[in-house]
Amino acid sequence: MSGLRLGLVLTSILALAACGQTKDAGEASQGERAVLTSISPDLAGRFSTLALDCVHREYPNKIGHTMTSAEDAKTPSQLHPAFYGCFDWHSSVHGHWLLVRLLHVGDTNAEWRGQAIAKLSQSFTPENIAVEMAYFDNPNRGSYERPYGVAWFLQLTAELREWDDPQAKTWLATLEPLEQMIAQRLKTWMPKLAYPIRLGTHNQSAFAFGLMLDWARVAGDAEMETLIVSRAKDYHLADKNCPLAYEPSGEDFLSPCLQEADLMRRVLPQREFSRWLTTFLPDLPTNGVADWLAPGIVKDATDGKLVHLDGVNLSRAWNLENIANALPENDPRISSLNAAAAVHKETGLKAVTDTHYSGSHWLASFATYLMTKRGQ
Fold it and tell me: What is the pTM assigned to this prediction?
């Protein structure tokens, strides 16, 4: 990245930080999110360019595809006519979400908007979604993209629901049949999940549950909300002394400890969450330092697994901000949480470039989620 571009990025970070955070000082659940309704034009332009480049870029492509006959040997666009780009199904889904999110909260006069609308309209057709539904309906694909990819799909429709725009309503109506299929499959799966999935990659349950819970609250699906809150408490209320010092693993893009805390602040009242956090992460510093949590290091950005560590820096940044935002105003841990978040944010944003497709096909989605404070 050039010095000029890096300077613009850092300027944008400081400007957004100055906007402040909304803190709920009451005893309500932490589920209410403060949605930042703007993003700097420079960042929106950078992030949208990366998504526009990949949402209909079919190759290279990684397919996690269960075949039941020779007829299933098809190209990615034949199998998934809506979500075949960006290397894999889930990255395509959150690449589409990125475009919707930036259309929703970004500059209404940005040059990239017309291309984004055209790309989304190309993907979101009844014919395409019918093929996607037929793929999911195969009984041999019950675990397909579960939970990561399908959680991002719900995040996509949640964004459309919150955007008061005629085109968004049309796209949502097209996606709703697949949305309801996915929601019902998740409702069937969650009661059977005996244990949480404590990984730092796609199968992690805490991250997916957070996206799913946000969707349930936006969509007004009380059954889904109740189920997720119940499951989260069953899995995590008794957790303590999470081994944050063992993180990250070599291919993580999510923090098992911090994502769990980010989930629990959504389901617990403020004071109860504060007490739970004390038991769960008892060694959080109170002196405002940032060096208690070092950013992940990527030694080969061309390696699709090693580059995951760029993602862990971005996701840690929003975890840390969200945890700090969920605590009482005078909590002494807030300053150190925010200090570590700032370091991770700066490190993570530097990696969001078009240099290597191994990162460019997905990192901008994480950066958009962070910089528009979508999870708050």
Answer: 0.91
Among the listed residues 242, 263, 142, the one whose alpha carbon sits nearest the alpha carbon of residue 192: 142
End residue of a domain, out of 135, 164, 192: 192
On whether both 252 and 369 belong to a single domain, the answer is: yes
Inter-residue contact 127 to 81 (CB < 8 Å): yes
Distance (Å, whole) CA 26 – CA 20: 18
| Distance from C-alpha of 10 to C-alpha of 15, rounded to nearest angstrom | 9
- Give the model's pLDDT for residue 38: 78
Q: What is the pLDDT of residue 192?
A: 98
State pLDDT tens for residues 74-98.
999 999 999 999 999 999 999 999 9
Domains contained in the chain, number: 2
Q: How far apart are CA 350 and CA 15, in angstroms?
A: 17
- Residue 264 in domain: yes
- Per DSSP, 69 falls in state S
Tokens encoding 256? 């098992």
Mean pLDDT of 266-289: 98
CA distance 277 to 262: 10
Residue span of the structural domain in which 301 resides: 234-376
| Mean pLDDT along residues 299-313 | 98
User: Is the CB of residue 158 less than 8 Å from the CB of residue 216?
Assistant: no
User: Are 186 and 241 found together in one domain?
Assistant: no
Q: Are residues 151 and 246 in the same domain?
A: no
| DSSP label at residue 247 | P
pLDDT of 12 higher than 80: no
